Amino acid sequence: MDPGGRRRRLDAARLYLCTPIREDLADFAGAVLGAGVDVIQLRDKQAEAVPLLRAARVLREAADRHGALLAVNDRADVALAAGADVLHLGQGDLPMDWARRIVGGEVLLGRSTHDLEQARRAVAEGWDYFAVGPVYPTATKPGRPTVGTALLQAVAALVPPVPWFAIGGVDRSNLAEVTATGVSRVVVVRAITDAADPAAAAAELRRLLGEADRRAAAGAPQRAIRPSI
Predict the structure, then answer these.
(1) Terminal CA-CA length for the chain
(2) Whole-structure pTM value
(3) CATH code of the domain in which 149 resides
(4) Structural domain tally of the chain?
(5) Is residue 119 part of a domain?
(6) Tens digit of pLDDT at every position of the chain (229 positions)
(7) Which of 2, 24, 35, 213 has the greatest number of C-beta atoms within 10 Å?
(8) Rounded to an integer, what distance in angstroms lies between the CA atom of residue 149 and that of residue 119?
């Protein structure tokens, strides 16, 4: 996929899923991508390169079938070998210039941010997108302080020129609170991966995000929330 196509798909993305390697990965990926997931990220901190590459090939095929983006977490080498569309990096991972040396200029780069200054810096440094969180407690980031919805409101007020996502403990039960801050994109994990019916869970999240988009476009007032900190 050309860089312009990747950027257009990222701009249009609303639902971003992180998944570890799992036995039913091919069927799982096909189901959730078909139900509305726009970006699927391979994130498995315990896996070594060979199983990561095998899993990435499965996800690459599924993403291509459904017109979705494939992301890889942390591992620039795996992203390059797998032909990923996106490499996502945390604050302690590779700096942007080194990541670019490895994956080249066509792969989109995403950044995790945990405060307002990091979000501002992600824009200034030229990251293609960034994620803000964790908004709520999450098992994928044990011990990390939550940022709450107050940070989401502060970032939304910046009107960032690149796509940005809320991440961390986001699910159906709190999605309205998240989108009321001005967020239009979310990253989820267990809300889909642990669901009894992952496809149904993905479809419901996508439906709710679409409703929030339509309300925002119509200028409808969002439900008032008290920012959590």
Answers:
(1) 40
(2) 0.94
(3) 3.20.20.70
(4) 1
(5) yes
(6) 777 899 999 999 999 999 999 999 999 999 999 999 999 999 999 999 999 999 999 999 999 999 999 999 999 999 999 999 999 999 999 999 999 999 999 999 999 999 999 999 999 999 999 999 999 998 877 778 999 999 999 999 999 999 999 999 999 999 999 999 999 999 999 999 999 999 999 999 999 999 999 988 887 555 434 444 3
(7) 35
(8) 14
Task: Report the distance separating Cα 107 and Cα 109, nearest Å.
Answer: 6
Q: How far apart are CA 107 and CA 71, in angstroms?
A: 9
Instruction: Locate 102 and state its tokens.
Output: 């490895």
**Range of 167's domain?**
3-218
Q: Is residue 225 situated within a structural domain?
A: no
Structure tokens at 201: 């869970």
| Single-letter residue type at 97 | D
Rounded-to-integer distance, Cα 84 and Cα 215, Å: 33
